[in-house]
Amino acid sequence: MKNMNIYLRVTILLFSFSLFLSTELPAQFLSEQTIKLDKALRLIDSYYVDSVNQNSLVEDAIIAVLKDLDPHSVYISKEEVKEMNEPLVGNFEGIGIQFNLLFDTIFVISPISGGPSEKLGIRPGDRIIVIDGENVAGVKISNNGVRERLLGKKGTKVKVSIKRRGVQELLDFTITRDKIPIFSLDASYMVNKETGYLRFNRFSATTMKEFSEAIGDLHNRGMESLILDLRGNGGGLLDAAVNMADEFLEKGKLIVYMKGSKLPQQDFIATSRGENENGRVVVLVDEGSASSSEIVTGAIQDWDRGLVIGRRSFGKGLVQRPYYLPDGSVIRLTIARYYTPSGRLIQKSYEEGYDDYLNDMNNRFSHGELISADSIHFPDSLKYYTKINKRPVYGGGGIMPDIFVPMDTTVNYSYFNALVRKGIITNFVLSFVDKNRKRIETDYLKFSSYKSGFEVDKEMLDHLLEMADSDGLKRNEKAFASAQERIQLTIKALIARDIWDMSEYFEIMNTGDDGFQKAVKVLEDRSLFDQRLAEK
């Protein structure tokens, strides 16, 4: 029976493929194979011992075989087609996560910045197991089923239980749904008199409009160098990435190219419209920077236009194209790979199978890569050279930074994470701001005075601990002391977000961010910047 199911999946998938690849396959092959597969389906429908739901069988077959092709070729049912681009345009109301269904489990790709899930500490890689008391893991829930359970009117609540790697028990969250604006720009501000800062969370239809307005404002305020923060940016629209890279490169320079066995090479070339071709640039990346983020980063690095600081990026270099099937469903099929100007393929290997591909982040941690750059080794076969200074760079799995920033493992964040996960810090800040908003706005007429003058004092911390006690969170004095600075910084940043906006939140948080601080240091020292850009 198992072999029979595999055979059916393969044959039905090939039959489905023939519906939209008819212009790419020899007519004789299509004729013979279509007749053969059509007869097999008719035989199953007419004579199989049990009744067969052919719609379900076809969809299961497509999903199963696409999974075996590569990790990014996916099937989208006709019910889900309308919603598949929602993270790139518009607004919606819900819990604020980007998710995927992996191993029949709801896998959090990333919480949407500023949304209710992000505020409670839900993380990329979390797996949602229970929603409002209903088990949703291992029950073949659909994307539409997830959305029906998690989307809802602003102010309504949903309870979820999450499985987090490294944590034995399920973690319970009560999330209050909210309106989720889908902006791609998280923050824009001047770090000092010369350095500007931009942080993007995705590449969407609004990205370049947001970019142009923000960077224009920074130029008007005297910006001469820029920190472009793409950490945690999982990608999005190719055009937005190409257009952003174009802003930094001179006319005629290659930004990225793509090619596949059925697709002729297509080059994307910088135009004359770029208004940011001068001035020093640092790009911040980490293991959550993928796809379009890697296109921008790769172009800037390969042309020695700026320095890359952080940790190795995700490694997603496959290009998908949607193909509509007769019933309105879509197959997003990988048709090509994209390459940086030096010729690097950024896509990480998936030769060891789907499961190993998904566990890549855990493998990076266990191998020590997130802690030490010395743990990362690339063979000479993956070595390439930048276009101007001929610096060695490597393909085969993400963008390696020019300056490595290890993950901070020196602090015990267990108690801090529990405070965030249970919403205690968020509730404390909401209560504090509700009681003290007028005083804060009176005492700190400008954000700059708040940033330099406001302190999260012992009285506030004692109140926070009392709230944690009343919520049933067991005290851990040692863990609290270890993470106290982080707790104070987070509270101060969240208050700033409530009083001002997201830019002010990141301006506070970045004061305790090692990658950001390294970027500022290297930009302030022109000789150091030039030296690192010329190192071989």
Please characterize this protein's 3D structure.
The chain is α+β, with helices and mostly antiparallel strands. The chain has 4 domains: 2-69; 91-181, PDZ domain (Pdz3 Domain); 185-407, 2-enoyl-CoA Hydratase, Chain A, domain 1, CATH 3.90.226.10; 414-516, no CATH class. The strands form 5 sheets. Strands 3, 4, 5, 6, 7 and 8 form a 6-stranded antiparallel beta sheet that branches. Strands 10-11-12-15-16-21 form a 6-stranded mixed beta sheet, with helices on both faces. A hairpin with a 4-residue loop joins strand 10 (185-190) and strand 11 (195-200). Helix 1 (2-20) crosses helix 3 and helix 8 packs parallel to helix 9 (292-302). Mean pLDDT is 85; it is low at 6-24.
State the low-pLDDT regions, or none: 6-24
Helix content: 40-55%
Number of helices, counting only DSSP H or I runs of 4 residues or more = 20
What is the level-2 CATH architecture name of the largest domain? Alpha-Beta Complex
Q: Could you tell me the CATH topology label of the largest domain.
A: 2-enoyl-CoA Hydratase, Chain A, domain 1
Q: Characterize the overall form.
A: globular
Average pLDDT: 85
Which structural class best describes the helix and strand composition?
alpha+beta
Q: Strand content of the residues, in percent?
A: 15-25%
The whole-angstrom Rg is 25 Å
Can you tell me the CATH superfamily of the largest domain? Answer: 2-enoyl-CoA Hydratase, Chain A, domain 1
Distance between the termini: 59 Å
CATH class of the largest domain: Alpha Beta
Oligomeric grouping of the chains: single chain
Query: How many structural units, i.e. domains?
Result: 4
Number of strands: 21
Main β-sheet, in a few words? 6 strands, antiparallel
